[in-house]
Amino acid sequence: MRRLLLTAFLILATVLAWTAAGSADTGISTAAVPTATCGPGDHPETGLQGRVPAADYTSGRYLQGYTCNTEAVAHEGSSGGFKALRYTDSQGNTCAFYDSTSLVPPTSTLTNLLGQKGIGVVVLDMNDPAHPKRTATLTSVAMLSPHESLLVNQPRGLLIGVLGTFLTAPGALDVYDVKTDCRHPKLLSTSLAGILGHESGFAPDGRTLYVSSTIFTLVAVNLDDPRHPKTTTIQTNVQYHGMRVSDDGNTLYAAHIGQPGPDLISGGGLRILDVSQVQARVPNPKISILSTMTWAGSSIPQVPEPFTRDGHQYLFEVDEFTDLFSLSGLTDLRHAPVGAARIINVDDPRQPYLVSNVRLQVHEPANHAGEQWNDPGGNNALGGYAAHYCSVDTRDNPKLAACSMILSGLRVFDISDVAHPREVAYFNMPTSKGSAAFSQPAWDRANDSIWYTDTGTGFWNVRLTHGVQDLMH
Q1: How do residues 146-191 score in pLDDT, each as one tens digit?
Q2: What is the separation of C-alpha 322 from the centre of its chain, rounded to a whole number of angstroms?
Q3: What is the pTM of this model?
Q4: How does strand 84-88 pair with strand 94-99?
Q5: Which residues constitute the domain of residue 285?
Q6: How far is CA 164 from its chain centroid?
Q7: Phi-psi category of 419—alpha, beta or left, where left has phi over 0 and alpha has psi -120 to 50?
Q8: What's the gap between Cα 226 and its chain centre?
Q9: Which 8-state DSSP code applies to residue 93?
Q10: Are the C-beta atoms of 195 and 233 separated by less than 8 Å?
Q11: Helix (H) or strand (E) holding 330
């Protein structure tokens, strides 16, 4: 009997040890971060942090927008998608690139039913940030619907997009040269090297592109010669979303959607991969798993952005929407986990751990299931009050992070104390239908500004004010 109890104890201890290593349920607070203190002339929110209540639509208050330590510098277009990118070319021209198609190609019946606007990838001349000038609209195969794959590599001046939809699509890969003249991108190649498309990640040196199809494939594409992309590695039966790569190109941080099972797909979080053989151009390179991490309240992991703070390695990770991939989430969207953000320590890529959560009051379970469910767009399964994309202003000791949080608009957080993030600014211009901020924000540090797009209102150039801009420098 004693031996049986000892065996049971050892088994239990092993299970608990494994759980501790793989889970982020460490008692880190999931409460909302402190609210921003707004300055004179701002138009603060009227209720919960991040909420645009139905009463504001009825009264017309929403038409003023909601600003806190921000001001609009410029606005362009009438639709937006998932990325807002900034690039300065070899001649000193600064450009913005943003996808204007949010869900599916604009020729489809589904698009018409959804009332979606926009076609292709928009190119803006931003030499005068207050007066963006559209110089091109890219409508090559992949750029018609790059979904969440649109990226620009700074060192090499390559703009890429992979054909995708909210599920996946044949992974046509378009590669453009923007280093010569970003205002007029030059198409270098169109290929099927992406295999299946949805999201992507660039090695910092621009030599390797990683393409994911969410629930099917992970592909590494060699871009040593961008006119002739080569598929070097294909992994199948993997569930990866957005991806980012370490500065040395050897480690891939992948948003892991989860594993198929009785509850559809569950157990989402972070997966860290060793891609050193791909980076070193080893023939037939192998990609191996270093660790898998989960956390309480995961919805759909979107992307982990790497950064350093005082010599330590972190990820600013964000989840999107509510939990739409599990049976339990789909059957009770009102009480399903809501996408938000978090900071993860990855000093040891084999043992990542949660440092803090970055959430708004509208993300808290009781509020999500409460009155705000009846706000315009508040009960939208593909939107609502949830996060979608975040970015940091620099990888090297950033003090600010910005997130597009759908109905809550653009939110800006002070992350200089990684254990205690706080909100310091926001900018939200809702429409009568709720509108939705989905895009990864871009940073114009020279002008104290952030660029992002909204599905219903297009591209925005937003300046930080009242001292918040000082955190950018």
Answers
A1: 999 999 999 999 999 999 988 888 999 999 999 999 999 999 999 9
A2: 14
A3: 0.92
A4: antiparallel
A5: 37-472
A6: 16
A7: alpha
A8: 25
A9: -
A10: no
A11: helix 327-331
